[in-house]
Structures are given as C-alpha cells and as structure tokens.
What does this fold into?
Amino acid sequence: MVYSEKVMDHFANPRNVGEIENADGIGEVGNSKCGDIMKMYIKVDDDTISDVKFKTFGCGAAIATSSMATELIKGKKIDDALKLTNKAVMEALDGLPPVKVHCSVLAEQAIKAAVSDYYQKKGIDPEPIVGIIPECEEGHCHI
It folds into this structure.
C-alpha cells in the first residue's frame, strides 16, 4: 500500500493526541471487529471548538485521519465542524488507499459523536442537529 507524505507525517507525528479533562463532549466510535477505535474529546467555548484531542487504537491510517480531522475542526464553529466529511479528511491527507477509506469515515463519525455528547450534556436532543451516527456492524464501518 502506498501512503501520501501527509498520511505518513500525521501517523509519525500525530497532532492533538491525548484527552481533555472535563471535556464538553466525548465521542467514541468503531469496535474491536473493525479493529479501529477512535475516541474524540472536544472543549467548546461560545459555540466554537476551542480544543480537541483524540485517542485512536488502530492502524496508521486511522491515526492519521484522527490527527487530520482534529486539525480541521480546531477553532471552528460547531456547525462548520459538523460539515466536515470523510472525503474532506481524505483530500487533506492527499488521499488514502481504497481499503483504508473506512478510517476517514470513523474520523467523521467521532466528531459527530463528540458533538452529540456535548448537546446531550446541555439537555439538547442532538439528533436533529447531528443526525444518527451509524454503528460498525459485521466488521465494516460505514455512513
């Protein structure tokens, strides 16, 4: 498999790794069948994601997509962060091999799951805003 320089850079030097204490929202997606699990933490100030961190258990592409996704939403309004697609994450990484596209899907889902958790903690039903976050089933993650 051939990975772009950006994928290799984000895998070797991931940005925003770790967790945020007292995070405003935490989203975890994936499962052991997928082999990739992403956990994303967000801090929200004035409807803006002021900080974001992640912990990912998975392959290099999963780590790279998590890293890039956090870079793309940090400092953005929640509405803009929710517009981030797996396609945009892949483009920012200069592409992914077809068998690794599911990693970018997980990154998109992790953001949505963290924002959903944020709204739930505020007593707001997240589904009309975020939508339904599909589960991984039978070893495949999809949107």
In short: The first strand starts at residue 25 and ends at 31. The longest helix spans residues 101-121. Strands lie at 25-31, 36-45, 48-57. The two ends are 24 Å apart (CA to CA).
